[in-house]
Write a structure and sequence with these properties.
248 residues; alpha/beta; 7 helices; binds NADP nicotinamide-adenine-dinucleotide phosphate; Rossmann fold; 7-stranded parallel β-sheet
Length: 248
């Protein structure tokens, strides 16, 4: 693992799941981590406590990213804490809902795009003034963006939008020395994919993977910390599949 000592990082949705694992991995590599949450204050404080207990630096920051001004409010709080320099942004917070085309409501569709696409877009916009040469942005895509798994058309299209943002952000920000990438997990054992904790869900998951176990959040967190690090200095504009060889 590369050394992130002296770097500052924001991980959104770090109270649980992949965000939590990413925050822990970044802190382990030496970064000061801002642990963002929305409803999970207790969980976020536990992540902060764990990082501090291991000798790291962390603070919790909250914002509801389903609100139009959520990213703006979060960016302000972040800048109040880190000052004029944020090195790593992991825009991980996300929501999912499985529904057929017929059953998808306008409200669900709008919420998915608000949290999964609008929030990362405006968070990047609002934090750009404090992101300098050498900074790294990591967004969260999904296996669902490239493969028709489950009843996920609306959710999957938010992740397709993330892949598109990666391309355009990376092209626009490369001149400033800022790298932009995404990771695309398959099924990961988190609250979002809790179906994988059932026998049927586990069987379905393993049936489409080359590697025969269900992914844990830290399988993804380590890759995110790698993409944030100098070891990945020549990688930008890419969506990295981190899915145990799903749907090969
Ligand atoms: P998770 O366990 O359900 O955690 C979701 C996180 O997002 C929580 O920390 C939650 O914060 C935050 N969040 C949700 N709604 C929010 C809102 N309105 N405002 C601010 N934060 C909000 O999910 P996960 O599985 O770790 O997923 C993390 C990312 O990976 C998502 O972008 C997801 O689409 C992507 N992904 C997941 C999988 C998978 O199988 N799990 C696969 C591919 C991609 P609070 O709890 O504090 O409210």
């Amino acid at each position: 693992m590369s050394n992130l000592t002296g770097k500052t990082a924001l991980v959104t949705g770090a109270s649980r799941g992949i965000g939590r694992a990413s925050a822990l991995a970044l802190a382990k590599a030496g970064a000061q981590v801002l642990v963002h949450y929305s409803s999970g204050a207790t969980e976020a404080q536990a992540v902060v406590a764990q990082i501090r207990a291991e000798g790291g630096r962390a603070e919790a920051v909250s914002a509801d990213l389903s609100k139009a001004d959520g990213p703006h409010a979060l960016a302000k709080r972040v800048i109040d804490i880190v000052g004029a320099r944020l090195d790593i942004l992991v825009a991980n917070a996300g929501v999912a809902s499985a529904a057929s085309i017929e059953d998808t409501t306008v409200e669900d569709f709008d919420r998915l795009f608000a949290v999964n696409v609008r929030a990362p877009f405006f968070l990047v916009q609002q934090l750009l003034p404090v992101m300098r040469e050498g900074s790294s942005i990591v967004l969260l895509s999904s296996l669902a963006a490239r493969s028709a798994v489950g009843n996920l058309a609306a959710y999957a299209s938010t992740k397709g939008a993330i892949d598109t943002l990666v391309t355009h952000f990376a092209a626009a920000l490369g001149g400033r020395g800022i790298r932009v990438n995404a990771v695309a997990p398959g099924v990961v054992d988190t609250d979002m994919s809790s179906f994988a904790r059932t026998d049927a869900g586990r069987e379905m998951t393993l049936s489409m993977q080359a590697l025969q176990r269900v992914a844990q959040p830290d399988d993804i967190g380590g890759t995110i910390a790698f993409l944030a690090s100098d070891a990945a200095r020549w990688i930008t504009g890419d969506t990295l599949r981190v899915d145990g060889g799903s749907k090969l």
